[in-house]
Amino acid sequence: xxxxxxxxxxxxxxxxxxxxxxxxxxxxxxxxxxxxxxxxxxxxxxxxxxxxxxxxxxxxxxxxxxxxxxxxxxxxxxxxxxxxxxxxxxxxxxxxxxxxxxxxxxxxxxxxxxxxxxxxxxxxxxxxxxxxxxxxxxxxxxxxxxxxxxxxxxxxxxxxxxxxxxxxxxxxxxxxxxxxxxxxxxxxxxxxxxxxxxxxxxxxxxxxxxxxxxxxxxxxxxxxxxxxxxxxxxxxxxxxxxxxxxxxxxxxxxxxxxxxxxxxxxxxxxxxxxxxxxxxxxxxxxxxxxxxxxxxxxxxxxxxxxxxxxxxxxxxxxxxxxxxxxxxxxxxxxxxxxxxxxxxxxxxxxxxxxxxxxxxxxxxxxxxxxxxxxxxxxxxxxxxxxxxxxxxxxxxxxxxxxxxxxxxxxxxxxxxxxxxxxxxxxxxxxxxxxxxxxxxxxxxxxxxxxxxxxxxxxxxxxxxxxxxxxxxxxxxxxxxxxxxxxxxxxxxxxxxxxxxxxxxxxxxxxxxxxxxxxxxxxxxxxxxxxxxxxxxxxxxxxxxxxxxxxxxxxxxxxxxxxxxxxxxxxxxxxxxxxxxxxxxxxxxxxxxxxxxxxxxxxxxxxxxxxxxxxxxxxxxx
Length: 621
Description:
- The chain is 52% helix and 19% strand.
- It has 20 helices and 22 strands.
- The strands form four sheets. Strands 10-22-21-20-11-18-19 form a seven-stranded mixed beta sheet, with helices on both faces. A six-stranded antiparallel beta sheet has the order 2-1-3-9-4-7, with no helix packed on it. Strands 12-17-16-15-14-13 form a six-stranded antiparallel beta sheet.
């Protein structure tokens, strides 16, 4: 209801603004045609002035009482009242009318930008369906408790995070990931809030309250993205603080110094000083620079990339090195048996022995062995299981002593074996102290990882891998993708140490970007100039730890994020150079009387409008 009333108020204000401009223009034309003079002319133009610029005068007075004197409202009022003082009524009035038209057009452009961004992130759920007395009742999502079961019908947004208990459907995740391909949900699947159920009926057991849900965290992130200002924005804020008083002083000098020095009439220089004031309004910079960053953040959101503020756009735009975690970032993080090499037994027997030995472990290596074996394991046949930390497993299977693990396990029990150098994790096996072969388990490289690294090598100085995995595996992945620098077999603390070395040796004013899966990379994500967590749909830890979040698991999105940041910064810099350049030119022309106050308003409004329209280009990359 509040939102509806707010929209109605905005629409009424717009209509009043349009009516006011049209009425002021009609009166202005009437005054110019009728040829009124003297006192009548003063009162006619005063009425038009109040109609067109009364609200600006009120704002200026309020700001003076709030100790915010030197703003664009103050400049416009001083300039136009000065024009009235020297009986230049038409110019004073036209300044206000043109200024109001310019403000209206700017508001429309800004509204278009905000509307397009709000549509990109239109993921806030309106209600949740909960069953009461055999009927579905629409309930506020914030009233739903953990453990409640909600129903999501076809066409509805999933309002809260949870697990599907009943039903089968495809959901549209594009608002979160930027990807159009639907995701399949069935009993046991994780349902993420903000997605849209495209077909079928789903029953979901709620696992997070609304305030902690994925959709709430993303909305909070987007809403507060504008609070973290870039250095460029802070520069503009400081610049405007000193610029406006400086131009007021400049106008006073222009009004009074030349008449004293050159013994000329006061009126001509006073008029030039008023023109000088109108030109000097800094609205083009004040509006367009933040809008440029806002548009860039909105464009990234459409691609499923959440950037937490303008300051991170600035850092993303100038990468020195892009550093990757390996597992889950460049690789899928899903291990598969890729080679079975038996010695004096069959492949099936070797796989069965290793799967049985690892049966009670939940380690990804153990899981991949059990998946490859795919048969039901007779647990009674496995006894006396002993996990040897960092080495592997010792177990008794059908009366035989089995060892399954890495090379260190074989060395520990003095087993004679052939050490293998290959990419992937190697599980060696021995039966009754005799080597019976090895199994290679590999993590698949993501399909688009190669193209992502190729592109990143063009726009950054280097790409790097920091991983806890073995040297051979890490180097294989790096060689396959075209990554030159690899640091392997690192503990989390060692990853931070290596990252700090890269930060020390980076080019000045450049950024070290670290990309991880966001779950166990929090220390490195935090330490990097820019931490990007990827493939983290529904991961609270990642959303909180990183500076930018890629909602799906595609490495090519990193390139997209950098390109969006580069284009956004390019547009922001264009606006600054364009606005300051045109201002400087017209201030000189105004000081020498080459342009009138009418031209000054066209210059000020035109520059502001062109800068705003240029900012909107950041919405398209």
